[in-house]
Design brief:
heterotrimer; A mainly alpha; B alpha/beta; C mainly alpha; A: mainly alpha; ABC transporter involved in vitamin B12 uptake, BtuC; 2 domains; 16 helices; globular; C: mainly alpha; two-stranded antiparallel sheet; 12 helices; 2 strands; 2% strand
């Protein structure tokens, strides 16, 4: 209950956000905003959950997409199994969703326990190694995963509680709710005392340890939570594409999430979402005018890194803080006169 | 920058303002996407084509686009369909299945495309297949040769077709030719070197299955599976050397095949055994390989002499005159797809309604330079292309690079394909 | 998944042993050349050049064009190396030097942008089609037979060049005045520049040298590998595995790791053909878990 009161404003904003998202999706008589936003939900959950590690805890992971892919594959594989849908019937989708999150969580406990002992590039490369290992397994285990062709033949989505995920409106609202719920969980995580412990570890792990923080355990909890949330992103993309593909576990997918974070800003909670939107729009708009998409995106990234030297929202935030300080300084001067 | 944070009233805390800014940015960007949609309400019939235009297979995507554009140009110069022009809109998926899925949705929803020509390779084509199933959108696959895409009932969709080779057809053809050669030359011990992914595995298994069927004394003594886009094939070449087979089969393709041939030549591989390479006969591959060995059996891809008709010669000359890339297997397949679309549109009177187009395309036969007797057909029962050129040629060092085309009769292919379908439980 | 019979059969014949051992060495040496550039740059400048694969590609394309124009392969290889080196110096001066000391992600991001731009530029300049240089006339000889195995002369040349360059790189860093200045500057740049040495130039030269190594690898690969835009990506990942296993910053480590990886590939292609990539990442994970600094890396994991 106290959580409710403490985060009432965030909850309210989240609720308003959800209403706006649903209004956009249902109010506009065109599939494009729904498609666009659904793919953003998936990408943004991957990027935001990764930012819990990168931005808040200072753990640069190169292998986060493994959990994204794992969530998608568990969800898709369960629903494609006639035994599973037969036994659970209408409950299939929610159970598959929970199983995807828990399954990914358990996997991430194992991987995380090994990885979080390392820091910086060693952590980065170890997560990369595990991700590519999973990628190889997905590619090699053709009987189960379909290898490079991914999960074929569509993913059945039995109706539950009147929700039919084969219907694009239902699917969109379902994905929007999942997205906002996950964002809220991350918000509470990062703004709670736990979140400040994460920041302390990022800024100075040794000092945190002296203060009695079990650094390894806290890092592991963060790792597991962020991996589980990434798996929800995978579930959304699985619903959206009606399949799951090994490319989701490829390092390039993790790379893209990192670019979204860096583009949007890693010190602002919603920075990764903006990054995801900007990258997508950039990609789509550039595609309309030229086939040389790579060169344009490359130049834009170069500009952000070398020109702004930080993410877009980080830039805005710094600019805003500076302006405020200038104003305060001016007021002080005026007061003295 | 500029006015990103609106109404920066004192008292509102930073966090809230930032959220507002983010929301404004999101809405702003959402709006910028719309002009394209409004723009799409014009007159021409739009054909959307997701394909691969970057990375190592870009050449194939580029030849697909060039070929489709060239056919559309011809149709438009002849007055279009019912007075309406055709227009091609392409998207680069970078061979990523989820990008291909998203691009396809975008082409329909945002660009207002009436027809989808799916020019993706294997993995991504399955993703597009699910999207068009979901959206109830008329679509022709033009580049994925994986047999199960149209043969397996679980992938079949009433309004989706395929206008390209199918692995099993080439396998029967290859098996027949290879068995003939095996008997004549006494090739009993076979080895394979094919890319380790669905197409490579399925294609190789099918080919060897038919070699064994037609020449029962043959056996496969070793298989080596390089990864797709593997830069170096040394370990695969030496694996073949160790096994000392009589003959080698490979379904490597594109740049991978070029690299494999140059690396294998270093070891004198082609002096030691007879080689069959189904994907060798494509112009960009044949022209790129520097140590082009003679006497390698090469599957039919696209060649100006196959079929050896004035129509094909004319198509080749026209393509070369209007394109800056070489014609590939993907090029003729996309040209054929555009011709099928145009023919179906004529039948529907320019109506692009999914079900009407599906009905018009199913079982459709068109005149085409690529067909065996000047025609190509999209078979009604499984919506896939038949009556194209299947067979093997032999390489020579200089132009025209391949000679002695040995064509497989479609009656043979039909018989064995039907048996294969039964074995796999597809019918 | 594992085929121990095939492996045992191979191990028991000298021909197979020679073939697989040499092919492991050949694969390993090109990897080593690329990885030694990565590790050299990291060891001294403490930046990770994620764009290293692009210099491999650029080297290959430059060598291709030079070969087409002059017909001299050795000259072409030199052009590839020098061209990649010059590109490296420009990249360092204009881009990477601006993110020295910044976090890892900034470096990653500029490198990614650079990769995208270079890939597209290559496509614009040379086209998307596959290019192949072909074996130069000097090396169009039948393979040597050693104990029943086959060894192509060109690959002997390739291995010899790689080993010489590897030894040269170690000597350059440890023994020459250039190496000493660069190492000193890496430890304390203000101090070194106070001695009247223009540190920036030394950093740029070292970076260029690292890129030239990738360029040489590209030029050596050009006769036998097909050239396409994006060809640098595949070798990039493998060269990072080599760098990490060997120890970031250690050239002998990279050499050892490259041979281990090459042999994994060549033996794996006989014994576990479908899990070669998985095995490589497994080795990398094991090394990171039990010896995070790599086989021959120094110092504590930070």
């Amino acid at each position: 209950m106290s959580l409710f009161i403490e985060f009432r404003r965030d909850l309210l904003i989240a609720l308003v956000g959800l209403v706006v998202l649903i209004a956009i999706g249902l109010g506009i008589d065109h599939a494009w905003p729904r498609d666009f936003l659904t793919s953003i939900f998936a990408a943004a959950l991957l990027a935001m959950s990764l930012n819990m590690l990168i931005g808040y805890t200072g753990l640069v992971s190169f292998g986060h997409a493994a959990f994204f892919a794992l969530g998608g594959y568990i969800f898709g594989l369960l629903l494609q199994s006639p035994a599973f849908t037969g036994a659970l019937g209408a409950g299939s989708v929610p159970v598959a969703l929970v199983a995807a999150v828990i399954g990914t969580g358990v996997y991430s406990v194992v991987i995380g326990a090994i990885c979080v002992r390392l820091t910086e590039i060693y952590f980065a490369f170890l997560t990369l190694a595990f991700q590519m290992f999973l990628y190889s397994v997905i590619l090699s285990w053709v009987d189960l995963t379909g290898g490079d062709q991914g999960l074929m033949g569509g993913i059945p989505r039995p109706v539950f509680l009147g929700i039919d995920l084969a219907d694009q409106y239902h699917r969109y609202v379902f994905c929007a709710v999942l997205f906002v719920a996950c964002v809220m969980i991350m918000r509470i995580m990062t703004e709670s005392p736990f979140g400040y412990t994460l920041r302390m570890i990022r800024d100075n792990a040794t000092r945190a340890a002296f203060l009695g923080v079990n650094v390894t355990r806290v890092k592991l909890i963060c790792f597991v939570v962020s991996s589980s949330i990434a798996s929800v992103g995978g579930v959304i993309l699985t619903l959206f594409t009606s399949g799951a593909y090994p490319e989701w576990a490829f390092w390039a997918q993790s790379g893209e999430a990192i670019f979204m974070i860096m583009l949007g800003g890693l010190n602002v909670f919603l920075g990764p979402v903006l990054g995801a939107v900007v990258l997508r729009i950039l990609n789509d708009v550039v595609q309309m005018y030229t086939s040389h998409t790579e060169i344009v995106i490359g130049v834009v990234i170069m500009f952000v890194v070398l020109g702004l030297r930080r993410g877009i929202l980080d830039f805005v935030k710094d600019w805003w803080v500076e302006k405020q300080q200038a104003r305060l300084a001016a007021e002080n001067r005026n007061g003295q006169e | 920058m500029k006015k990103t944070s609106p109404r920066s009233r004192p008292g509102m805390d930073r966090r809230t303002v930032l959220k507002g800014a983010a929301a404004v940015a999101a809405v702003g960007t959402a709006v910028t996407g719309f002009p394209a949609y409004l723009k799409a309400a014009g007159k021409p019939i739009k054909i959307g084509m997701p394909t691969i235009l970057s990375g190592r297979v870009a050449i194939l995507g580029e030849s697909s686009v060039a070929s489709a554009k060239n056919e559309i140009r011809k149709i438009n110069e002849a007055g279009g369909i019912e007075g309406r022009m055709l227009e091609l809109v392409t998207r680069d998926s970078r061979a990523k299945p989820d990008e291909a899925a998203r691009m396809t949705r975008d082409l329909v929803n945002n660009e207002g495309c009436d027809i989808i020509i799916d020019a993706e390779a294997s993995g991504a084509s399955f993703a597009v297949n699910e999207v068009v199933r979901d959206m109830k959108q008329f679509c022709i696959h033009t580049n994925s040769e994986t047999s199960s895409l149209t043969a397996d009932p679980k992938n079949q969709v009433e309004w989706v077709f395929r206008s390209c080779r199918q692995g099993i057809h080439d396998a029967v053809g290859g098996g027949l030719v290879a068995a003939k050669v095996a008997k004549a030359k006494g090739l009993k011990r076979w080895a394979t070197v094919s890319p380790d992914y669905a197409y490579g595995r399925a294609n190789t298994a099918e080919f060897m299955e038919y070699v064994k069927l037609f020449a029962p004394e043959t056996e496969v003594i070793t298989e080596t599976w390089p990864k797709l886009f593997q830069p170096d094939y040394t370990e695969n070449v030496t694996a073949l050397l160790n096994a000392q087979p009589d003959a080698v089969y490979s379904c490597l393709w594109g740049g991978d095949l070029v690299a494999f041939f140059d690396q294998a030549s270093l070891y004198g591989l082609f002096d030691q055994f007879t080689a069959f390479a189904v994907n060798l006969g494509d112009y960009p591959v044949l022209t790129a390989i520097k140590s082009r060995p003679a006497g390698v059996y090469s599957g039919s891809r696209y060649h100006k002499d196959v079929p050896n008709t004035p129509e094909n010669e004319a198509w080749y000359d026209n393509f070369m005159a209007n394109s800056n890339v070489l014609p590939t297997n993907w090029a003729w397949q996309n040209a054929a797809a555009i011709n099928f679309v145009a023919e179906a549109l004529k039948k529907t009177g320019g109506d692009t309604d999914t079900m009407k187009m599906a009905e018009a395309t199913s079982g459709l036969t068109i005149n085409s330079p690529f067909g065996v007797d000047g025609t190509l057909t999209i078979r009604e029962e499984d919506h896939t292309l038949v009556n194209y050129m299947v067979g093997y040629s032999k390489t020579i060092v200089d132009e025209p690079y391949v000679v002695d085309f040995d064509r497989t009769a479609w009656s043979e292919i039909y018989t064995h394909e039907a048996e294969w379908k039964k074995r796999n439980g597809y019918m | 998944m594992f085929d121990f019979d095939a492996l045992a059969a191979c191990m028991s014949t000298s021909a197979c042993l020679v073939n697989q051992a040499t092919s492991g060495l050949i694969i390993g040496m090109l990897l080593f050349l690329v990885a030694s550039g990565v590790t050299l740059i990291f060891g001294v400048l403490h930046v990770i050049n994620f764009a290293h694969g692009s210099f491999y590609m650029v080297g290959a394309y430059f060598a291709y064009t030079a070969y087409v124009v002059t017909g001299n392969y050795f000259l072409a290889a030199l052009v590839g190396a020098v061209g990649a080196g010059i590109c490296g110096i420009l990249f360092e001066r204009l881009i990477i030097s601006r993110v020295y000391g910044q976090n890892l992600l900034m470096q990653l991001l500029v490198c990614y942008a650079f990769i995208l731009i270079v890939d597209d530029l290559v496509k614009i300049i040379w086209g998307a089609e596959y290019l192949a240089m072909g074996i130069p006339a000097e090396f169009r000889l039948p393979p040597f037979r050693i104990a029943g195995g086959y060894v192509p002369p060109f690959y002997l040349f390739l291995v010899a060049v790689a080993v010489c360059i590897g030894v040269g790189s170690v000597l350059l860093v440890t023994k020459t005045r250039f190496g000493k200045i660069v190492r000193a500057a890496a430890l304390n740049a203000p101090m070194v520049s106070a001695l009247g040495i223009r540190v920036n130039i030394y950093f740029a030269l070292l970076f260029g040298y690292g890129c030239a190594l990738a360029g040489v690898a590209g030029a050596l690969a050009a006769p036998v590998r097909s050239l396409t835009p994006g060809m640098g990506l595949g070798i990039l990942v493998e060269s990072f595995i080599v760098t990490v296993i060997g120890g970031m910053g250690s050239i002998p480590g990279a050499f050892l790791a490259a041979i281990i990886l090459g042999l994994t590939r060549s033996i794996g292609s006989v014994g576990f053909p479908l899990f070669v990539d998985g095995a490589m990442f497994m080795i990398m994970a094991l090394v990171l878990i039990f010896r995070p600094t790599g086989l021959m890396g120094q110092g504590e994991p930070r």
